[in-house]
């Protein structure tokens, strides 16, 4: 299983995490446990977590193509929602 993570710094992590999960919830079923939300995306796993000053994104997938798909879904939406704050999603293999 391949994994990657992005810690996206923001003063309002709760807002962006909630917005991302709500928006993607139209197509995905999310499981929420406190500050952590998890969803299955075609055999892969997406995780959105609220940290002290960041939204933490995690992607777990069986292959590189699936990992890229999860990264794209999470990252592109969060960057679009955070344009005014110039949020940048940078993935690190993990």
TrEMBL record:
InterPro entries, alphabetized: UCP028291 (IPR014543)
Organism, as annotated: Nakamurella endophytica
Protein name: DUF2218 domain-containing protein
Superkingdom, taxonomy of origin: Bacteria
Pfam family, one: DUF2218
